[in-house]
Amino acid sequence: TTTHRIAVIPGDGIGKEVVPEGLRALAAAAKTGGFGLDLVEFDFASADYYLEHGKMLPDDWFERLRDFDALFFGAVGWPDAVPDHVSLWGSLLQFRRRFDQYVSLRPVRLLPGVASPLAGRVPGDVDFLVVRENTEGEYSSIGGKIFEGTDRETVVQETVMTRTGVDRILKYAFDLARARPRQRLTSATKSNGISISMPYWDERVERVAEGYPDVATDKYHIDILAANFVLHPDWFDVVVASNLFGDILSDLGPACTGTIGVAPSANINPERTFPSLFEPVHGSAPDIAGKGIANPVGQIWCASMMLEHLGEPAAGAEVLRAIEDVLGRADAPRTPDLGGNATTADLGIAIADAIR
Ligand code: NAD
Ligand code: IPM
Ligand code: MN
């Protein structure tokens, strides 16, 4: 039997509460799917590790993680102890860059039994993929501060778009769109106001689209696109966006599906030179951490995406089916964000038990 080697990195806050539920589902899927899991847990990429070691990661993190088949990640950030830019740039953003996980794939789907805040929307109305550029764009380390402490204090942070970086995310998104029944791709732009990088993005979309005559392509400026997520979520199939725009859309989309607690993400290195990383869209949620009430569905859906990536598509589909099966039941254990008073473990156990 095949055994998949997974690095487990729970991180901070509710990351430590939802990761065990993801592992519970993975164990159930391995049992019924007939494959093995070799899990190795790491305590770095957390505020506790930082407070003890003065850094977020050990110096040899790259060597220690690079040979795993995948990384199963919770969430990082504990702003009361470590400034967010220090904890995030010292961990998660290093993983994305050094492992060249240039695709952030973030499904947005209204699940059965979950109420959308959008009036009248039912499952099927909201079902699209956000494809977020994950290694460059607005998240650049190029810039600086001059005349600090004076009236002339000036801060600059550059947006970086490379031909390689833009084209590869667009191709990934077009390939995905081509394989879906609706074959529709929407690009997020802002070429009216951001007058250098965004017209370049649009130009590359037009160029790459020439290779995909079967895919219907449109584009919206990010402001009206955000509005249309709320007003017309049924218009969207695959939405491709730069790093920052994709970040914002991938919280807005799940908000339209009731709660960001259900939203998964895959940070993918499509060439498989390095391991891909699977983490929920949400963060460490300090406001509810320690209470055992975080919704584990985002993390469990990540387990589904990870299994698909590992070459276990049937097991991945089964985990998602179990999520939908449980949430669709009238008596499902619902965490507070889903309108109930169930615990993280109540919902996690119900889903693991539903895996066949
Ligand atoms: P957040 O996603 O942690 O929380 C936003 C709101 O959503 C909170 O009210 C929280 O209680 C709620 N929420 C989030 N996940 C939930 C779940 N599974 N179930 C129920 N409710 C849930 O965003 P934030 O408050 O902006 O950030 C908190 C910390 O997490 C910061 O340090 C931030 O930098 C970090 N963060 C990390 C990641 C990541 O590791 N990928 C992502 C986003 C934010
Ligand atoms: C996400 C998060 C991160 C991002 C933060 C924590 C740096 O919001 O994964 O969506 O902006 O990419
Ligand atoms: Mn985000």
From TrEMBL:
Entry EC no(s): 1.1.1.83
Recorded catalytic activity of this chain's protein: (R)-malate + NAD(+) = pyruvate + CO2 + NADH
Family: Belongs to the isocitrate and isopropylmalate dehydrogenases family.
GO MF, any single term: tartrate dehydrogenase activity
Cofactors named for this entry: Mn(2+); Mg(2+)
Broadest EC class assigned to this enzyme: oxidoreductase
Protein name, per record: D-malate dehydrogenase (decarboxylating)
SUPFAM superfamilies per record: Isocitrate/Isopropylmalate dehydrogenase-like
Residue intervals of the Isopropylmalate dehydrogenase-like domain: 5-351
InterPro entries: ICDH/IPMDH (IPR050501), IsoCit/isopropylmalate_DH_CS (IPR019818), IsoPropMal-DH-like_dom (IPR024084), TTC_DH (IPR011829)
Taxonomic lineage from the root: Bacteria, Bacillati, Actinomycetota, Actinomycetes, Pseudonocardiales
Native species: Amycolatopsis albidoflavus
Keywords: Manganese, Metal-binding, NAD, Oxidoreductase
Pfam families on file: Iso_dh
Domain of life: Bacteria
